[in-house]
């Protein structure tokens, strides 16, 4: 089965055109790919925290998460962000089922190592692929928020790129990150050039040189982790170009393709 994990960034959820969701439904109906959506909601969370006068900070692109912050994260991700996508897919003629990693114990979480400063930030340690496959077989497009529980029932804030990577690894799915940029860029003399591919080594150099920063850091780390665990392909696509997802699904055309160093000789 050709699974396609489509990670919708919070940077674009509010702005994706109807055609984006129609394309997902078309991709599913074509049978070429079985779509699974994983979503974030970073800017929506920050804006609600701001309205509630709760201070929020990030460390290497990850939100420092107290229990008070987590309540808001969960409210936004499992609520408005998840249901917005379900609603759009319904309007596009699809059958979407929204759930968090906690529902049906879909994702099992654990705190990330050395996370003292980050608080309740977790990682995914297990994915119930059977549940995802059963939903797909019943014609659903799963829409997954990354909030998940550990063995004790403690909830965790999990970066959506990291969760999407874990799900892609478990399904051996191709992974598309839909974000608010046309791909990874390099900036020289004030001019930005989008890279059509980037290697693991180049990613590491750009992160070390602070040429990849903020939310792009967990994204590229998730991309490399995925490829190292036999995910066939990871790409970054532009959420504002309504053809980018369809172009990728049909022709493999991507904004930026991330590749392992050993693949360089084969490209
Ligand atoms: N080298 C880079 N190329 C492209 N975008 C970058 C780069 N470094 C940092 N970014 C930032 O990463 C952001 C995307 O990550 P993020 O805000 O987490 O988006 P999302 O909500 O889609 O996951 C872009 O808006 C951009 O500002
Ligand atoms: C730990 C951590 O940083 N969690 C993220 C979860 C949402 C997310 O990842 O949203 P984007 O995809 O829009 O970045 C957060 O609290 O913002």
UniProtKB/TrEMBL annotation:
This protein's UniProt keywords: Amino-acid biosynthesis, Arginine biosynthesis, ATP-binding, Cytoplasm, Kinase, Nucleotide-binding, Transferase
Cell location: Cytoplasm
Signal sequence annotation: none
Keyword Amino-acid biosynthesis: yes
UniProt xrefs under Gene3D superfamilies: Acetylglutamate kinase-like (3.40.1160.10)
Positions contributing to substrate binding: 41-42, 63, 157
Entry GO MF terms: acetylglutamate kinase activity
Pathway, per record: Amino-acid biosynthesis; L-arginine biosynthesis; N(2)-acetyl-L-ornithine from L-glutamate: step 2/4
Entry EC no(s): 2.7.2.8
CDD domains per the UniProt record, alphabetical: AAK_NAGK-like
Swiss-Prot/TrEMBL site (Transition state stabilizer) positions: 7, 219
Enzymatic reactions: N-acetyl-L-glutamate + ATP = N-acetyl-L-glutamyl 5-phosphate + ADP
Highest rank taxon of the organism: Bacteria
Enzyme class (EC, first level): transferase
Main location: cytoplasm
Name of one Pfam family that matches: AA_kinase
Domain Aspartate/glutamate/uridylate kinase per the UniProt entry, residue ranges: 3-238
Function (record text): Catalyzes the ATP-dependent phosphorylation of N-acetyl-L-glutamate.
Family the UniProt entry places it in: Belongs to the acetylglutamate kinase family. ArgB subfamily.
NCBIfam families (UniProt xref): argB
Protein name: Acetylglutamate kinase
């Amino acid at each position: 089965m050709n699974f396609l994990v489509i990670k919708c960034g919070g940077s674009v959820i509010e702005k994706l055109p109807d055609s984006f969701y129609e394309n997902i439904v078309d991709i599913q109906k074509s049978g070429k790919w079985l779509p699974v959506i994983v979503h974030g909601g970073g800017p929506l969370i920050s804006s609600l925290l701001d309205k509630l006068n709760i201070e929020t900070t990030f460390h290497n692109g990850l939100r420092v998460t107290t229990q008070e912050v987590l309540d808001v994260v969960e409210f936004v991700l499992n609520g408005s962000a998840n249901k917005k996508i379900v609603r759009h897919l319904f309007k596009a003629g699809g059958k979407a089922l929204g759930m968090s990693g906690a529902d049906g114990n879909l994702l099992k979480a654990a705190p990330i190592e050395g996370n003292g400063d980050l608080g309740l930030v977790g990682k995914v340690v297990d994915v119930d692929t059977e549940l995802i496959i059963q939903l797909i077989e019943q014609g659903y497009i799963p829409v997954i928020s990354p909030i998940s529980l550990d063995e004790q029932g403690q909830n965790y804030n999990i970066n959506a790129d990291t969760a999407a990577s874990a799900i892609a690894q478990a399904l051996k799915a191709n992974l598309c990150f839909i974000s608010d940029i046309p791909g990874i860029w390099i900036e020289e003399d004030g001019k930005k050039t989008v890279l059509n591919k980037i290697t693991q080594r180049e990613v590491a150099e750009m992160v070390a040189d602070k040429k990849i920063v903020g939310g792009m850091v967990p994204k590229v780390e998730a991309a490399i982790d995925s490829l190292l665990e036999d995910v066939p392909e990871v790409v970054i696509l532009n959420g504002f170009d309504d053809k980018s997802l369809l172009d990728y699904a049909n022709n493999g055309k991507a904004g930026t393709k991330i590749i392992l160093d050993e693949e360089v000789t084969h490209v």
